[in-house]
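We treat protein structure as text, and this decision shapes the records that our systems exchange. The remainder of this section carries one protein's record, kept here as part of the documentation:
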Amino acid sequence: MTAFNPLVQGWAWSRTSTSTSMLGALPVVSMPPAIPAPSLRPMLPLDSLSFHITHYRPNILNATILGPQNRRLYRSVTDGTPGCPTVLRDEHQRAVALVDWSGPPTVEIPGVLKRTPARNWLHLSANRTSRHMEVRGMKYLWQPVGADICLFLNESDDKSILARVSRDSSGATLEMSGTAMQHGLLEICLVASTLFLSGANLD
């Protein structure tokens, strides 16, 4: 049996999971030499910000996103009816993104991404170890590093982590580097994190 790979199947988890099972939920993949080894959890830059995805009701499809100083910045809202979309709303209740679950997941981010199948937006690599994402003409890749999923610039000699999503006892944490914030990737990364943590098959 192959290891469970959230980049392929989604990334479901139970609130009762132990740290051992949480760590075992991601595959150990061979990394290119420039990517940090999974056993060494690298530090993000000092200007990084942490966003906590918490208050699951009962999962990430209905959750609250807290920023620095525990300020409530976003909410993911989903009607309980199967197939209803998940809407990401900012602190002013504006809809900033939508994930439609009525068929294979589709994503829409106004001003950034028109309605697009998730499998096309987060394109699975040929070796099934990473997902490639293009935003505003910039190319990125998501790749497991240990128990985390990390965002890197694609086709670049700079292999610094731009963003990292990890699970914790109260939900999940999304860490954003200053560079990622400057690139306007916060809402994009929140949507990608929702897809990875939803447990849905993206393909």
Summary: The CA atoms of residues 105 and 118 lie 6 Å apart.
